[in-house]
Predict the structure.
Amino acid sequence: NSLLFLWDSLSMQKKSIFSLSRLAFFTNCGKRAILVYMKLWASVKNSIRRAFYLLRKRRLGLSFPLYCKARGVTANDYQGAIAQSRAGYPLQIVHTPKGEYPHNVYVYNVTLNRVLGYLDKTLAKQLIKLFGKGFVRDGYIENITGGQKRGYPYYGCNLRILESQELLRNCKDFSHLKE
């Protein structure tokens, strides 16, 4: 409740800042005053956005980098993609809801241009709450587990998920993901 009150009071400040900027413009105080008020509001807005993000992150109990396993690795020829992957390959963690799976978060190998699996439903829900729907985050393959050479019937993949989103920052359409 106190956070909502803070947000409401800041939105009121926003209105008053714009009113002051209009007043400064009409009273010939100059464009400089308008720019100062606009920069001040942008700074306040970014600080509040960051505070809410840190609060959500703490409430969800997440700390980065996250270490987890890729799930569903035995389906859709993911085994071939994992067998070709190596530790250190860059990944993209991409939220792509599909039909009855609204919490579907793919693990996408950037080097091979292939999907390796998906994230656990619980972790996917937490990441969606933190970053929002349609998020994209960077990651790396920590190591490849199992496989025929090690006496296991299937390969597995351990992941390191980062907070950043640098690799595909400008990409909005992920229809190119090959399953």
Remarks:
- The chain has four helices and six strands.
- The longest strand covers residues 136-146.
